[in-house]
Specification:
Blueprint lengths: L2 H15 L5 H8 L8 H20 L8 H12 L13 H36 L11 H14 L10 H19 L1 E2 L2 E2 L1 H25 L2 H12 L11 H16 L1 H8 L2 H6 L4 H23 L5 H13 L3 H25 L8 H19 L9
Antiparallel strand pairs: 1-2
Helix pairs in contact: 3-5, 3-15, 4-5, 5-10, 5-13, 5-14, 5-15, 6-7, 6-8, 6-9, 6-13, 7-8, 7-13, 10-13, 14-15
């Protein structure tokens, strides 16, 4: 038998013993048998839904504007020279309501949802625990303390820190304290980190309550609305800081997705493939704190987004961070945009704070996740 014939025979035997898997079969194999969706079409569907929710949100409010006119106003501001912007079919009041009030709050909801979901995905990778997220680990509470200190001080800064800076410092301090309390013999214990986060979050909430009770009466309403979460005060200038923080975090985390995959398999396995686990965990915690602080400073305390959305992404496309992180970011944006639209319409004319709606979704999800042990939620890579 010639060498070429032997090679063909060997190849035929390998095909029989190890049949080539198609794309769907490979995805099911990576997910432990679950059927996963392809990433590209899923991203496209979520992006289209987000645009539709943006238009619907821009058309909803006291000033009557049809969805078509709302879309025209948004396009007219993005692309100069559109004829409907000057032919008198749209009133200045409609233009102001859509472009100056409704679109900024929907965009801020999108940025906040995307950032909180990404921060949750990072923290879950750090502690290898599906219950981790900024709100449960006390990071959001730390950011709230920093932001509330600025509110109750009556000025624009506290000790030279703006609200965003104070929220970031508060988030970092909470993150460092949780990591210190959860460390056993130089390693982070996921269970202790959750318990330490819950306890520290309760303590920081008590600090916030004390600051609220002892501040002037005119600051109490502002503090209460801030703690419950809202994007109603958004304008175009308030989008800059969370957008920059989200862009930095996305660039860094997408580049670390392979290392985050290795981290899920355990420290020894990660170090065996060259991942510096301590440095990676520290970098992810700093990025999560940066995101949480930047978002809490402009949208208040909104919980459970970082818990619900990453798990939904894993259920859709699997646990590989290269696949689930884009779904997490877009899904978080869509989730909070829908929540903001419901907050404005469910009890009109009263507006429900975002934190209440996300708690209605997140608390039952947390209990289901706790009982399932995380495996059914896709954290079984």
């Amino acid at each position: 038998m010639s060498a070429s014939t032997a090679t063909l025979a060997e190849r035929r035997e390998r095909r029989i013993r190890f049949p080539r898997r198609r794309g769907g079969e490979r995805r099911r194999a990576r997910s432990g048998g679950r059927r996963m969706l392809p990433v590209g079409p899923t991203v496209t569907i979520i992006a289209v839904l987000a645009v539709l929710v943006l238009v619907l949100s821009a058309a909803t409010g006291p000033v009557a504007v049809s969805p078509l006119d709302a879309a025209k106003i948004v396009i007219g501001h993005l692309i100069p020279g559109m004829p409907w912007m000057s032919d008198g079919t749209l009133t200045p009041l409609q233009d102001q309501a859509v472009w100056q009030f409704r679109v900024p709050r929907s965009l801020l909801a999108a940025l906040s949802g995307a950032g909180l979901a990404l921060a949750g995905a990072m923290m879950q990778a750090v502690v290898r625990n599906p219950l981790a997220e900024p709100y449960i680990l006390g990071v959001s509470s730390g950011a709230s303390v920093g932001a509330v200190l600025v509110i109750v001080s009556g000025g624009a800064t506290f000790l030279g820190l703006t609200m965003s800076g104070a929220a970031f410092v508060g988030a970092m301090v909470a993150c460092i304290l949780v990591a210190m309390l959860a460390r056993i013999r130089g390693e982070l214990s996921p269970t202790r980190m959750i318990l330490a986060g819950v306890a520290l979050g309760a303590l920081l909430s008590a600090v916030t309550s004390y600051l609220t009770l002892t501040t002037d009466a005119q600051n109490v309403v502002s503090v209460m609305f801030f703690l419950l979460g809202s994007v109603s005060a958004a304008d175009m200038s308030s989008l800059l800081i969370p957008a920059v923080a989200l862009a930095i975090a996305c660039i860094a985390v997408f580049g670390l997705s392979r290392s985050m995959n290795a981290l899920l398999s355990g420290d020894e396995s990660a170090m065996a493939v060259g991942v510096r686990t301590t440095r990676l965990r520290g970098l992810l915690l700093v990025l999560a704190s940066l995101l949480t602080g930047a978002i809490v400073a402009v949208s208040g305390g909104i919980g459970f987004v970082g818990l619900v959305v990453p798990h939904m992404a894993r259920l859709l496309v699997g646990s590989d961070h290269r696949r689930m992180l884009p779904i997490t970011v877009l899904g978080g944006a869509l989730f909070l945009m829908v929540a903001d639209l419901l907050a404005r319409t469910v009890a009109m004319p009263t507006e429900i704070p975002l934190g209440i709606l996300t708690a209605f979704v997140g608390a039952p999800f947390f209990l289901w996740l706790m009982r399932s042990g995380g495996e059914r939620a896709g954290f079984d890579r």
